[in-house]
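User: quick one - fold this with iron/sulfur cluster bound?
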Amino acid sequence: MTWQTFVFIPIAALAFGYSGYRFKILFRMMKAHQGKAGDRLKDVPARISTFMANVLGQKAVLQKRAPGIMHFIIFWGFLIISVGTLEQFTTTIHQAANFEFIGDPAYRALMFLNDIMSLGVLLAIIYAAYRRFVLRPEGLGKSVDANIILAMTSSLMVSILLMNGFHILGVQPWFQDAMPISRAFSEVLAGLGLSQDTNAILGGIFKWIHMLIVLGFAVYIPSSKHLHLVAAGPNTYLRTLSREKGMTPINFEDETVTQYGAAKVTDLSWKDALDYYSCTECGRCQDLCPAHNTQKPLTPKMLIVDLKHNMYRNKANLLAGKHDEVSHIVDENVTEDVIWACTSCRACEIACPVFIEHTNKIYDIRRNLVMMESRFPTEVQSVFKNMETNASPWAFSSEDRAKWADGMSVKTMAEDQNIDVLLWVGCAGSYDERNMKVLRSFASLLKKAEIKFAILGKEEQCTGDPARRIGNEYLYQTLAKANIETLNRYNVKRIVTACPHCYNTLKNEYKEFGGNYDVFHHSQYIAKLIGEGRIKPTKSLDATVTFHDSCYLGRWNNIYGEPRSVIQALPAARMVEMSQNHDQAMCCGAGGGRMWMEETLGKRINVARTEQALATNAEVVASSCPFCMTMLSDGVTEKGMKDKVRVMDIAELVDQSTP
Ligand code: SF4
Ligand code: SF4
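Assistant: Sure. Structure tokens for the protein plus iron/sulfur cluster:
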């Protein structure tokens, strides 16, 4: 042991002790959350697999090529370099406690990797600085925290190279030929003409500088956005595994529950807190958010950051268990406009490299605003009322539900239960004139394919999707249970629907209440019928077609191929993709109950999406969702292109082409 031992041990103990104390506080704040996080441990093999792919393999990070490669190098570089740093710690405590015991080739390999990665990480950090200060992508924003980390990490790498360079000149270690970068660096340093002893001393000084920066890093991480270095791995392991996602139901029969939704951060779950800790503030969610991109006050990145700051502001109350004194979640940062701007498109969640779940938080806050405080956009009042009285967001009688099929001899389940599939019409297909035509085309196709089908007619009620997304869970459950009772009474096994919102609710959300059905979206069903040769589109379309991905079909249910395969089956249809397509597609603006709300802030989302469609010069904008149909049709009209561009459902295109 040397004097260095006695200096290093107390400094390291102080740094790690303080860091540990900070982590303990973060953990206690996480534990103070009272909401339910669901089962985050089941399906261990899938969790290990997602961890390997996305943490070790950095798969999600690499979705963005250049910054992804940069992050990959920094991630693996730091992992490898930390082994070398650990050796510096142990040799400072005891000179002989190096890692050479692993043997010559292994130790040389370790030194080689350390050496190469020091330069690799330095170059990656230079690129990060170039991106942050020169390219300045909007999503990154300005961050003092990020600048501090850039300065610290670049100093770490420079100190390693200087330490190794002087060390080679001063000590000439036996493994120096395994360190090509440091050797080249030492040749430059040799130009200083210093003595061997001076070089050895300088090597030691830079070793200390390096170690002190590492210890500073340990102290700084818990209070910086680089907390993600620790939190993102567990967050990835504990993520929601399936893209097909239903919302968590509320048990209204539980009399111990006196509050619904999230009024305070502590009403959210520990997983939500882990989400805040994991956020890298990369801005990828914001870049894809249709609300942000049309100048609404919502940005998913700032939502996470603001919730984290709300939690930090309430730290004392959280740690003291004073839940009642925690301030309200909706404040001057997370305003009501922020909460109502969300279309529930989940573009943010698809983009997030650390699997943060933004939408659950928004729904929970909406639930509280709606069910506990009756705070919601005034225009939604009539939607709730219609759903309560007419079982539809529109003010039409349920007696008129089957009017769309007048003259088509479509049977109801009450009339004929000997069917292949139940056609779930949905409210838009029942009452909206444009979408009634879509249903007629789809029913016509089913008849051409000789499929035995029936509808529920006046027994069908709204699935409850709009009520649920807006936050009225009670109304949703009332409608859902009534529908499930009807479907189960008729022993329905198989359902097809032309509405992705109905599809998602019937398939993913009704099972919570005993509704288990084999549900198809009509794009899947038509693709299947074409594949089986039961539908044969032969008439030429002779048009350029662009397809708009519905969020509830694509991002919510991972269905991208079938609607495209249907379009490609049309003779002389020429498909072109919009600039944003598949899981990067822009929302039409109707989801999350936005269909029923005024859009007074910023540019209209449907117009922005329509502009992307028009930029393809397609003659047909194909849709597979009644709400997208409405939004895109309005957009085309607003852009004055109604006479040149047709907005059509894929069922209409196939029906026209099928004799
Ligand atoms: S779900 Fe869509 S609208 Fe809502 S925050 Fe995420 S990206 Fe924005
Ligand atoms: S929520 Fe995810 S995508 Fe958005 S800034 Fe944070 S880490 Fe990036």
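One thing worth noting: The radius of gyration is 30 Å.
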